[in-house]
Amino acid sequence: MAHWSKNNRACKTTWSTLRILDQLNAVFGKAGDLKMKELTYYNQTSSKDQRASMARMLSVQLDNIFRELRGARYEDDITGDKAIGSMVEVLTTPDATVALLAEKCDVNYKFYGEEEDL
Q1: What span, in angstroms and rounded, lies between the C-alpha atoms of 107 and 18?
Q2: Most CB atoms closer than 10 Å: which of 73, 75, 92, 93?
Q3: Contacts within 8 Å (CB) and 24+ apart, 110-114
């Protein structure tokens, strides 16, 4: 399982943004273990293409909120397409966890208040 910590900006921002978007209502401590198939957007009766479309829409929403409202910016050598594609990959994997999604987001974004590498 991916590392899930209240001290990690990516974890906290991913969790709180998913809550704002009404994708989950779990408290932080339990949210990291939630699987993609347990989030609101994931409809088990939808086709694979429909779920991919929903995952893409959610990824775009996450990207916009991270950057436009939460002060994140892309890491060096990361584009919007790469960041969104990375989230779609996780969001379309039914048993992937919210912690894994946050880990992918951490790789792709510098979140507001993260310390810079010296």
Answers
A1: 18
A2: 92
A3: 110/72, 110/73, 110/74, 110/75, 111/9, 111/10, 111/13, 111/66, 111/70, 111/71, 111/72, 112/9, 112/13, 112/70, 112/71, 112/72, 113/9, 113/71, 114/9
User: How far is the CA of 58 from the CAs of 1, 21, 48, in angstroms?
Assistant: 22, 9, 15
- Helix (H), strand (E) at residue 74: strand 73-74
Tokens 């992937």 label which residue? 96
**26 exposed, middle or buried (CB, 10 Å; 0-12, 13-18, 19+)?**
middle
Threshold 0.90, pTM exceeds: yes
Residues with pLDDT less than 70, the chain? 1-2, 115-118
Residue 23 DSSP symbol: S
